[in-house]
Amino acid sequence: MTADTSATRNRTGMAARPMPEQAMGDPRRFKVKGWLLWTAGFVSIPIAGIAAQATVGRINDAVAALVGGLVAGAVIGAGQWLVARRLLGDPLAWIAGTAAAMGAGLLAGAWVAGYGTSVGELAVMGAITGLPVGAVQAFLLRGRLARSWVWAVAVPLLWALGWTVTAAAGVGVDSQYAVFGAFGAITFMALSGVVLDRLRAATPTAPSPPHAWPAATA
Hints:
Elements: H1 20-24, H2 32-40, H3 44-56, H4 62-83, H5 85-88, H6 91-112, H7 119-141, H8 149-168, H9 182-201
Helix pairs in contact: 2-9, 3-4, 4-6, 6-7, 7-8, 8-9
């Protein structure tokens, strides 16, 4: 008899299941589909700005900043969860955490920027707004992503960039919205999606449990 050298059979003669990395491909590869889906979630950001403006009007005082941030953060958190629900986990925690963090962040950021709308003022407001948002979301991602602290660092920078892009694009920032517009939103979601994918790729996958040999029968 010839020896069965096939790697696809185990000692029982049954076809062996592929290893996880064989079934799913290299987990370190960039997941284009997931990134595109995350980026498509940019639509929630201008919607959040419209919702906040409909609720409080201009972000020109502390109450408007706090309430507007809460409203916008809830919409953004919901949009992010809808496009990455498997990764982000509990929707209530993600949405409520993002809302609370953005309310506090916008309250502080708008005050520090003097409720101004120059490029520099908006960038400062964005960076400060992004600090608690990134920190809370990174906390919620712990255990799900390796080095989730990187998310806490990236979000303030990308939030500032979102405002910078929106202002540079000539969008009517004088209306004092709670969050940047579509151009800034695409920039933020596209770049944050890259960060999210690389953190996912760096996260070790849990090994599959070993398969026990079938019990011998008399």
